[in-house]
Amino acid sequence: MIEIMQPPVEPFKIKVVEPVTIPSEERRKKAIREAGFNTFLLLSEDVYIDILTDSGTSAMSDNQWAGMMLGDEAYAGSKNFYNLEKAVQDILGYKYVVPTHQGRAAEHLISRYLIKPGQIVPRNMYFTTSKMHVEIPGGKMVDTVIDEAHDPENLHPFKGNIDFEKLQGYIDEYGLDKIAFVNVEMNVNMAGGQPISMENLRKLREFCDGYKIKVIYDITRSSENAYFIREREKGYENTPIIDILNEMMSYSDGCIHSSKKDCLVNIGGFIATSDKEIYEATRSSVVIYEGLHTYGGMAGRDMEALARGLREGTQYEYLKYRTNQVRYLGELLMQANVPVVKPIGGHAVFINALEFLPHLQREQWPGQTLSAAIYEHSAVRTMERGAVSIGRDSQTGENIFPPLELVRLTIPRRVYTNTHMEYVANSVIDLYERRDTIPGLKMIYEPKHLRFFQARFEQMTL
Ligand code: F0G
């Protein structure tokens, strides 16, 4: 029997509300068919609880909104850029920052500078846009995460850790000159929001120093990762989150950031580094693809909200509430035996679709099927994170069927109440009780890149 924690106490009160309604059963049925059973193609107004993503969906604080009014909309030298630079220096310890409009733009600039055709990028685990930006300049991303990360039941506290034998294996197989850099994601999204330990980061630095390989982080969910280090790693029980973050970053050569997650803003991203060469190369290319290096695709007001959000998102009480709200939802589902990835991650609860819908073949896209069924059942919008998301092998063109076929229930920050979490849990549990009535899907349209965003499906007969 799972012991359910008390609903977490919110460290804020609500000043502005946005009305939402539950569309009728008839409307939901029609809406999901019009969307080709792809939750990315639903209209937001047809959704009651939107847990598609935690990206750009946060509620900003009064302090951030006040900052929006102080936007210095100068083309060059906006004071908000310097506030952002200072926040990056204080919180993360990097010297330089190159702003971009969001994370994938930062991935683009780093990849085009560091990757040559035929090179590989070992990473703990892939993320969709990160993989794409490695492939565009002719590289290949390879998985070096510990085996435990691929097992939804395994309770390892740091499932985002790198397996050094796997990493060594790639160096031996491809040769040192074929390693563009090692890429490390914090709170690994596709593994279920699972953290990497400080010990593993420190070891990776030593390992890469031995070969003179650069280490580039994806710090999109690094504050949540830092919280887990404090909770789970010996020696960090009383360390301030900012000190943990500073230490984490000190083991890297630079990072990319999608600020739309941990930084509590609706848009934004950056590259940060203390390496002058990486800085100069990306500062030079940002002006081609994004905008001048003191705004890089963001308005002054967006940089101000980001500078403030970067600081706010590291507050211990906030991070405790944030991760506990996700855990609360996870425990409600676990208590009803709904198969979820364990331990519950930082930003989302991931349902194991292979266990939820064992009557479906992999070619019937169980993750996609379950995500569409949850919407039709209760107007809750979730996202597939499995075979549709990973796409095809870039060399053979064959579908890849990864060990994890998941549906992600991704919780926006400071947006939904604990009662909303209970509505989601009750809806999923209700559907679980009649799971064998859910028919699979057939893919009828597949775009060339990042197919999960726009693919369309048809329902098969049971
Ligand atoms: N890296 C990670 C780990 C991400 O989760 C994302 C986006 C990106 C990079 C790209 O950043 O969206 O700002 O361009 N993740 C979103 C998600 C889309 O729903 O998980 P972006």
List the helices and strands and how they pair.
Blueprint: H1 25-34, E1 49-50, H2 62-68, H3 79-92, E2 96-100, H4 103-114, E3 120-123, H5 128-135, E4 140-143, H6 164-174, E5 182-185, H7 198-211, E6 215-218, H8 222-232, H9 241-250, E7 254-258, E8 269-273, H10 276-289, H11 300-312, H12 316-335, E9 348-352, H13 353-356, H14 366-378, E10 380-381, E11 383-385, H15 387-390, E12 406-410, H16 418-433, E13 441-445, E14 456-459
Parallel strand pairs: 1-10, 3-4, 5-6, 6-7
Antiparallel strand pairs: 2-8, 7-8, 9-12, 11-12, 13-14
Features:
462 residues; alpha/beta; Aspartate Aminotransferase, domain 1; Aspartate Aminotransferase, domain 2; 2 domains; 5-stranded mixed β-sheet; 3-stranded antiparallel β-sheet; 16 helices; 14 strands; 39% helix; 12% strand; globular; binds ligand F0G
Word description of this protein:
This protein has about 450 residues and is α/β, with parallel strands linked by helices. The chain has two domains: about 180 residues, Aspartate Aminotransferase, domain 1 (Alpha-Beta Complex); about 250 residues, 3-Layer(aba) Sandwich (Aspartate Aminotransferase, domain 2). The chain is about 40% helix and about 10% strand. The protein has a five-stranded mixed β-sheet with strand order 2-8-7-6-5, with helices on both faces. A three-stranded antiparallel β-sheet has the order 9-12-11. Helix 5 links the parallel strand 3 and strand 4. Helix 14 packs across helix 16. The longest helix is centred in the last third of the chain and has 20 residues. The two termini are about 35 Å apart. The relative contact order is 0.17. The model has no long low-confidence stretch (mean pLDDT about 95). The structure holds ligand F0G. Ligand F0G binds next to helix 4 and helix 5.
